[in-house]
Design goal:
Radius of gyration: 24 Å
GO molecular function: ATP binding; hydrolase activity; protein serine kinase activity; protein serine/threonine kinase activity
Number of domains: 2
Oligomer: single chain
Order of helices and strands: HEHEEEHEEHHEEEEEHHHHHE
Catalytic activity: L-seryl-[protein] + ATP = O-phospho-L-seryl-[protein] + ADP + H(+); L-threonyl-[protein] + ATP = O-phospho-L-threonyl-[protein] + ADP + H(+)
CATH architecture of the largest domain: Orthogonal Bundle
Subcellular location: Membrane
Low-confidence stretches: 2-26, 147-153, 220-225, 334-352
Strand order of the largest sheet: 1-5-6-4-3-2
Pfam family, one: Pkinase
Structural class: alpha+beta
Strand content: 15-25%
Largest sheet: 6 strands, mixed
Number of strands: 12
Mean pLDDT: 74
Family: Belongs to the protein kinase superfamily.
Shape: elongated
Length: 353
């Protein structure tokens, strides 16, 4: 009887081992397919690959969490040379790794003061992580959406906000025209803008980015991609209006749809030459900066792509005088749904001049 039990346990053990081996083999095969496809499309990488053990060591077993998102978690880490890094550990349910390797490929192709630097990555079965340069002040989101809480002292001041808006525009212009290939970032929003110790902005999160031919000036996107209202790169203006208003464009607490959409509200005040009613404007210089950012944001969100300025023009508008700016046509955009996620298919024309 004992022999039968032992034999049964050994059989179950071997079966369990075989299943585990089969799973690991299948996972390893999937990983190799993704990497082969990646090398064929993008060529060899210029960034270092780390093992999962390396990731655990550099984060001190994931001791300090910097942030949490739908993609996974970001942890504070340290490289052997003492350099601080931010380690983005992706959820295991991230598919076969195609989107992950797309992000690795996209960022590794960039080199710009307003683009976050990718220092390395980990792709070990279902374990995936990205190692970025460490940004001491985290995301722009916490500084603008908490601006109404005085004790936190989060309002950055209009001079800093203007500098951040110019930096982001310069980063986008580089992605469109400065790279060997055009890179479209489909999720430009405050959460994806990181700030260093001097509040210098850097664009991050390239998981949904698209690399396209330099000859293309208009890209037709079929299907949902990114966050509603932040899809076309020029709709950077949506984020710009959030920076100005110190609130999300969509106020989910409001019942009246005409009151929840900030661009409509601010355009009416601009059209009637009323006070902008914005917080922390303390002098004439602040008023000029706010007005300029509002006008630029409204030009950027024009529904017709031919009416939207190219990012080079956006920079010129932001650094120029407010007197030279014309008031754009009234935005034809309707108030987006209260849910920030895109759930249905859509067709979007993206101007990438």
């Amino acid at each position: 009887m004992a022999i039968v039990i032992i034999a049964g346990l050994l059989f179950r053990g071997n079966l369990s081992f075989d299943r585990s081996f089969f799973f690991l083999k299948k996972q390893d095969k999937s990983c190799k397919i993704v990497k082969t496809s990646f090398l064929r499309n993008y060529g060899p990488l210029q960034v270092k690959r780390y093992s999962y053990l390396d990731i655990k060591m550099m984060t001190n077993s994931f001791k300090t969490k910097l942030g949490q998102g739908g993609f996974g978690s970001v942890y504070k880490g340290k490289l052997p040379d003492g350099s601080l890094v931010a380690v983005k550990v992706l959820n295991r349910s991230k598919g076969d790794g195609g989107e992950f390797m797309n992000e690795v490929a996209t960022i590794s192709r960039t080199s710009h003061v307003n683009i976050v630097s990718l220092l390395g990555f980990c792709f070990e079965g279902s374990k995936r992580a990205l190692i970025y340069e460490f940004m001491h002040n985290g995301s722009l989101e916490k500084f603008i959406f908490d601006a109404k809480i005085p004790q936190k002292g989060h309002h950055l001041g209009w001079e800093t906000l203007e500098r951040i808006s110019i930096g982001i525009a310069q980063g986008l212009e580089y992605l469109h025209r400065g790279c060997n290939t055009k890179i479209l970032h489909f999720d430009i929003k405050p959460h994806n803008i990181l700030l260093d110790e001097n509040f210098w902005p850097k664009i991050s999160d390239f998981g949904l980015a698209k690399i396209c031919d330099r000859k293309e000036s208009i890209v037709l996107m079929l299907g949902a991609r990114g966050t509603a209202g932040y899809i076309a790169p020029e709709v950077y203006g949506m984020m710009l209006s959030e920076m100005v208003g110190g609130r999300r464009n969509i106020n989910v607490q409001a019942d009246n749809s005409s009151e929840i959409y900030f661009p409509h509200w601010i355009y009416k005040r601009l059209e009637l030459d009323q006070e902008l009613g914005l917080q922390s404007i303390v002098n004439e210089e602040d008023k000029v900066r706010a007005r300029k950012m509002i006008i630029v944001s409204l030009w950027c969100i024009q529904t017709d792509p031919s009416n939207r300025p190219a990012m080079k023009e956006v920079i010129e508008m932001l650094v120029g005088s407010v007197e030279s700016l014309q008031i754009p046509p009234k935005p034809c955009l309707f108030s987006p749904p209260k849910s920030p996620a895109v759930t249905d298919s859509s067709t979007t024309l993206v101007s990438i001049q």
